[in-house]
UniProtKB/TrEMBL annotation:
Organism whose genome encodes this protein: Planoprotostelium fungivorum
Record-annotated G8 domain positions: 53-189
Protein name as it appears in the record: G8 domain-containing protein
Keyword flag Glycoprotein: yes
Highest taxon in the source lineage: Eukaryota
Alphabetized InterPro entries for the sequence: CEMIP_beta-hel_dom (IPR055401), Fibrocystin (IPR052387), G8_domain (IPR019316), Pectin_lyase_fold/virulence (IPR011050)
Keywords of the record: Cell membrane, Glycoprotein, Membrane, Signal
GO CC terms in record: plasma membrane
Length: 1277
């Protein structure tokens, strides 16, 4: 179709002239597609240049290096170009490049303010070959400016360098080349090496002679600045140790023919490599040829000093332009096209552009916002490609772009230190839109590298602005592809510093403003596809990212690699496809296999999703895993353990999912102590669906440490190299022992001991189980001695050598629960020689802890030493509401970040008589402090309980412990809930009538917490009338379960409330406030406290009640006895009585004072139900003596001690009474005993069990079949 499209838009559509033009045109065209285009598109006239001056007249006979100056108001059309290279062309008026084949050679073009450079228009694009060639050798120095400069109020002097096309502030450039689109598409079938025919997914209008790129469909070439050859030079295109070169397989080709309506392309030469065309690994094909070409001269290839295009104007519209030999290596800001310090660039765009060959940082934006980059194709470029420079760039759009082969620079040409590890898209500010892009063959695909604040030329401008890129959310990241990457497809880590170095940092999206913490925002990263990435599909150090409907195929060691609390929802993980790749020279394996076996066992792990070794908790919801099975070369599983073993892992969760030819979980087969497999250890992943683990309500997948072998509720899985355990009340929690710098607990005399060489290890023995290594948990020293063990357990802690002999105990040790939730604790016994004294410091309370009088008196607020062992109760702060307890990032739209638990630790300093040595291992007996005396309850959360009509999907479990004498000073309820209802679910306690008792946080997959236990709630629990209900995000009933006692015969009972009538008491009293006395009392307030004396939503005695409205933590309200503030005589009465209730389920502590005296905190000493709650009105009685009242009562003042804002409390029936004692009654318990339950019907049980004899009698290995049978049973629930 070359040279066939004329200008039908120069005449009116539908006229006889237009019909003649179309007919004449059609005779010259091949096929009917172009005719259809001409007949159906309404077009407008081209720019009328008949009154413009002709270049050949205004600038005749120009000599080489002549400068040209087009004055303001002067309009010129380039009718004829000189055959020589001109000097600088300055456009102050208008310069039009007509639709004719010609080449303008110049050392630079400057479009000044009010100047315009025009070639084509949206309705009249350029159809011939119009070329601008920027000429010149590199100056010395290379950043020398010959094109002038401008001064910006913030950025200072902006220099324009040399050999460039410059658009100054106020200038305009409009370049429109004809679009022979689409600019790129994908293969519809595989093309083999040596073939010449491509079958495409989309019909194209490409032409014979057009240049194409075909993206690689294999793993990337090997390049990494840290790997060097024998001469000390970095490898850039070799597989180290693999016997030869392995080049990138992206190819450059020429169109020889177009057929099949534009869906089949025949190339002029055969392809060198296979290009796969089966989903999800479909190679892209991009068009590189454009009608308008801006390029550097031929000498640019040797000097790496091409042209550059810099614009400072929002009036920049570029479409259908090819930029080649562009970019000036080592020179900051000299990029192929650069939107530079425009700020508001709304209206500027690049569409349908191509950037082939040698370009550096193809399309760059620095301090420019709202630029649209769409349908561009980049190929064979150097350094980072699509590039946001400073971190101030916002509101830009990157849509439907193709980037193929971003090559690394060598050290000579580095602009950024990371240019030898190039990314396809370099993102310094996430507040931009990224949609429908495909990138291949780079070090990283999409690299989120946000600085703390904008840097570079934006530093001064934003130094005091509220702009923090690491805290800003991304409005849309959707339907993007990354493949054939050396490292990761998406990288959210290793972020930019002010001096362009990298630092490990997290993306923490939050609500505005960003200069202080307001609240997190969940960022959805949707429909992302990664395939054939060497290391992984995604590395994300994002706090609140929600990865949804992603695809990860053959993504090296792992598909996803996540830190912090992130959710991966509805992902498809494909471990192996039919893509054979390209065999390495001299090797029988494909590149994928060889990469996974390079050098050390570190490369042998292969899996779909992997939690970061220092992070969590990742939640994987409803995934599909296919073809993850171990081979002689790889250890493989859908969910895989960390390479760093137990190092800092916390609870990660797998919920639901399908497993097709895949082992669900694979733990790395790593041995820390040679010759003793008992010391293998690794991280863990929470499985939470019976379809996965065969355990109703979920279970845990853990490593092969001896401790797990000793538990009766854990089963070893050979193919996963792990144990599967039932759920238990205390979740798997990490405890870390960090020894002081002067401690060396390893026996240094045994230097041949392999464990000594590895740094030693720690053994933890369950108390009361003896000192056998068969039931010990072994933890390695890895930034502290680490153990991932069930919480709510007790342990003897020993530091050991390889022979199992006890060594020194530490003279200084910090002990932290690094992943604990509220209510989780450890009881520890650490041996020390007799006569040792201790200083035990509580980091959270910033106090030294005292020694307890006995082991029974141990609490988290003291320690005990019996001259043999130091006993500690280690927990997080059980009363601190700021300790997050939810699992997963989403809960009612609010993120639940993992808190900094370091402040909840304790430090032990031991002063031993000599060395802190001790005798042979002696594990103490198990013990339970008085404050840990508890009763256990449990409920299976089932859909059939909530939906009797037959809904059977979903499940959950909740564990409850009631501590009647908690160390907090009042009864406490601790719970740990697990469910698979997903994000935004709500959890509540209800009585047997469906009345809400309390709200629990549900989390994405569960939660745990401690709450003060109200007597009326405790009463429901022991009477078997308390239910847990999970409501789905859409408001529908999800799961429901009745809380039942694990051992009903031993449960402790609260004293029931007895013999009190709220509205009509049988005893004498003096009314202080009720509806009948309201006219006698005066209500007043201060500090944002208000009274509402007409609250009618809840009227227990048939009349309005008082509503306290406390706007902030120091607000209070007053109740005066009358207008004159006179007093009420106390007389015979000894106590102030009133009833209180909370309108909503929140825990609030009320305080009361009288006669402007000191406050009394209304706690369980004075509250019949121990705490105020929303379930029922509760009686409060405070002795008048505690309030300092002797003879007269003039005023009562109410406030709060909860530190909360906008607190409402209902008050009624305020009176003086003769006794401060709260009457009680004895309860008769009626809680049923817990037994596992399910929604499985009897017919289903019969169907599944009928399969068992056939399996057992088949003479084959029955274990996998029986496990599958168990899964089938749960799947049928």
């Amino acid at each position: 179709m070359a040279n066939t499209l004329l200008f039908p838009h120069m005449v009116a559509c539908g006229s006889s002239a237009s019909k003649t033009a179309v007919n004449n045109q059609a005779t010259k065209m091949r096929g009917t597609l172009a005719l259809l285009v001409l007949c159906t598109i309404t077009v407008h006239a081209c720019l009328d240049t008949s009154n413009y001056q002709k270049w050949s007249v205004v600038f005749p006979n120009l000599a080489a290096q002549s400068t040209v100056n087009i004055q303001t108001g002067q309009n010129i059309v380039l009718d004829q170009v000189p055959s020589v290279v001109l000097g600088v062309i300055t456009v102050g008026g208008t310069l039009v490049l007509p639709d004719k084949t010609q080449e303008l050679q110049t050392t630079g073009i400057i479009v000044s303010a009010n100047g315009s450079l025009i070639a084509g228009s949206p309705d009249c694009p350029i159809t011939q070959k119009v070329t601008i060639t920027l000429c010149g050798a590199p100056p010395s120095p290379r950043n020398l400016t010959t094109l002038g400069s401008e001064t910006d109020s913030w950025a200072g002097v902006i220099k324009y360098g040399s050999k460039g096309l410059i658009v100054k502030v106020g200038g305009s450039i409009q370049l429109y080349g004809w679009k022979s689109g689409p600019t790129w598409t994908k293969l519809s079938s595989t093309v083999q090496a040596g073939d010449r025919v491509l079958h495409l997914q989309d019909a194209v209008s490409w032409r014979v002679g057009d240049q194409l790129t075909i993206a690689s469909s294999d793993y990337s070439e090997y390049f990494d600045v840290n790997n060097k050859d024998q001469n000390g030079k970095p490898y850039q295109s070799q597989m180290t140790g693999q016997g030869g070169n392995f080049p990138d397989q992206s190819e450059y080709a020429t169109v020889a023919a177009v057929s099949d309506g534009g869906k089949t392309i025949t190339l002029s030469a055969p392809l060198r490599y296979l290009h796969w065309g089966v989903w999800p690994e479909t190679a892209e094909v991009g068009l590189l040829t454009r009608n308008i070409v801006i390029r550097g001269d031929a000498a640019s290839d040797a000097t790496f000093y091409g042209g550059h295009f810099l614009t400072r104007s929002a009036n920049t519209q570029i479409s259908g332009v090819e930029l080649t030999r562009m970019g000036q290596l080592t020179v900051l800001g000299r990029y192929p096209i650069h939107f530079h310090v425009i700020r508001n660039a709304a209206g500027a765009f690049i569409t349908d552009m191509s950037l082939p060959r040698f370009t550096h940082s193809d399309a760059a934006s620095s301090d420019s916002n709202y630029v649209v980059v769409r349908n561009t194709v980049s190929f064979n470029t150097y350094g980072h490609c699509l590039f946001f420079e400073d971190g101030s760039e916002q509101g830009n759009v990157l849509d439907t772009n193709l980037v193929v082969w971003a090559r690394p620079m060598n050290d000579t040409y580095l602009l950024l230190p990371t240019d030898n590890q190039p990314s396809s898209v370099w993102i310094t500010n996430p507040n931009n839109t990224f949609t429908n892009n495909a990138v291949s063959s780079a070090y990283i695909g999409y690299w989120f590298v946000m600085p703390v604040q904008p840097k570079g030329l934006s530093t001064a401008e934003y130094a005091h602005a509220n702009l923090y890129p690491r805290k800003i959310p991304c409005p849309l990241f959707d339907n993007n592809i990354a493949h054939s990457m050396f490292f990761f497809g998406v990288m959210i880590d290793d972020m930019s510093t002010p001096d362009d170095q990298l630092e490990s940092a997290a993306w923490m999206p939050q609500q505005a403003p960003y200069d202080y913490y307001v609240g997190p925002i969940n960022v959805e990263m949707s429909r992302y596809t990664a395939w054939r990435t060497r290391k992984g599909g995604m590395w994300s150090r994002c706090v609140t990212c929600f990865w949804t409907h992603n695809v990860y195929a053959e993504t090296g060691q792992m598909g996803t690699f996540t830190l912090n609390s992130q959710v991966i929802s509805d992902a498809y993980f494909l471990g192996k496809t039919g893509n054979p790749g390209t065999p390495l020279p001299g090797w029988q394996y494909t590149l994928a296999d060889s990469y996974l076996t390079i050098g050390t066992p570190y490369y042998r792990m292969h899996g779909g999703s992997m939690p970061y070794d220092a992070g969590g908790q990742t939640v994987v919801l409803n995934p599909t895993f296919e073809n993850f099975t171990s081979t002689e070369y790889t250890e493989s599983g859908g969910m895989r353990g960390s390479d760093a073993s137990a190092f800092r892992l916390i609870r990660n969760q797998l919920i639901g999912g399908k497993f097709i030819n895949s082992e669900p979980v694979r733990v790395r087969n790593q041995t820390f102590f040679t010759g003793n497999s008992a010391n293998e250890m690794s991280g863990y992943t929470l499985l939470h669906d019976g379809a996965v683990d065969g355990v109703n309500g979920g279970g845990w997948a853990v490593g092969v440490n001896n401790y797990w072998k000793s538990r009766g509720d854990c089963t070893y899985r050979f193919l996963g190299n792990c144990h599967w355990c039932s759920l238990f009340p205390g979740g798997i929690t990490q405890i870390v022992f960090s020894l002081g710098p002067n401690d060396n607990v390893v026996d240094t005399t045994d230097t041949n001991n392999p464990l000594w060489k590895a740094g030693g290890y720690m053994a933890m023995y369950p108390l009361g189980k003896g000192n056998s290594v068969d039931n010990a948990y072994f933890g390695r020293d890895d930034a502290g001695y680490i153990a991932n063990i069930p919480a709510q357990t007790s342990w003897a802690v020993q530091f050991m050598n390889g022979d199992g002999n006890t060594l020194l105990s530490p003279s200084s040790v910090n002990i932290d629960i690094s992943s604990g939730r509220k209510g989780e604790y450890f009881l520890l016994a650490i041996p020390y020689p007799a006569g040792t004294t201790f200083t035990v410091f509580d980091y959270y309370r910033q106090v030294n802890l005292p020694q307890a009088s006995s082991l029974a008196a141990l609490t988290p607020r003291n320690y005990y030493y019996d001259n043999k062992n130091l006993y500690l109760w280690v927990t997080n702060d059980q009363s601190n509401a700021n300790v997050f307890s939810q699992m997963g990032v989403l809960q009612q739209g609010v993120s639940s970040n993992a808190p900094d638990y370091s402040k909840y630790g304790i430090q032990v300093t031991a002063a031993c008589p000599g060395k802190c040595t001790h005798g042979p291992i002696q594990v103490p007996n198990a013990f339970s402090p008085s404050a840990l005396t508890s009763d256990a309850y449990r409920a299976d959360l089932l859909p059939c309980n909530a939906n009797p009509v037959g809904k059977t999907d979903g499940n959950g479990t909740i564990f409850v412990q009631v501590y009647p004498q908690s160390f907090t000073g009042m009864p406490t309820l601790s719970y740990q809930a697990y469910h698979n209802s997903g994000p935004y679910a709500l959890m509540s306690l209800q009585d047997d009538s469906g009345v809400k008792v309390a709200d629990f946080a549900a989390g994405t997959t569960g939660t745990s917490d401690n709450i003060k236990l109200a007597r009326n709630v405790w009463e429901l629990l022991v009477l078997g009338k308390l239910y847990v209900v999970v409501v789905n995000a859409d408001g529908s009933n999800g799961l429901r379960g009745q809380l039942k006692a694990v051992t009903p015969s031993t449960i402790r009972l609260p004293l029931g409330m007895g013999g009190v009538d709220m509205c009509h008491p049988a005893y004498s009293y003096a009314g202080v406030y009720n509806w009948t006395t309201s006219t006698q009392r005066v209500l007043n307030y201060d500090n944002f406290g208000l009274w509402n004396s007409s609250y009618t939503a809840d009227q227990p005695c048939g009349s309005p009640v008082l509503e306290l409205q406390l706007g902030n933590p120091v607000a209070s309200v007053h109740l005066y006895m009358d207008q004159q503030h006179s007093a009420l005589s106390v007389g015979q009465y000894t106590a102030l009585e009133f009833y209180a209730r909370l309108p909503v389920a929140v825990q609030i502590t009320l305080n009361v004072s009288a006669n402007d005296g000191n406050y009394v905190i209304v706690d369980n000493r004075y509250v019949a139900d121990y705490v105020l709650n929303s379930y029922q009105w509760t009686l409060v009685r405070i002795p008048l003596s505690a309030l300092g009242v002797t003879t007269q009562l003039s005023t009562i003042r109410f406030g709060q001690n909860s530190g909360l804002y906008n607190v409402n409390i209902l008050i009624d029936q305020v009176r003086l009474v003769p006794s401060a004692t709260i009457p009680t009654a004895t309860l008769t318990p009626a809680s049923p005993q817990y037994a596992p339950s399910s929604c499985l019907t009897s017919s289903t049980l019969t169907t599944v069990s009928a399969l068992a004899p056939a399996i057992v009698g088949s003479g084959v290995n029955h274990v996998p079949a029986l496990l599958m049978l168990a899964w089938m049973a749960v799947l049928l629930m």
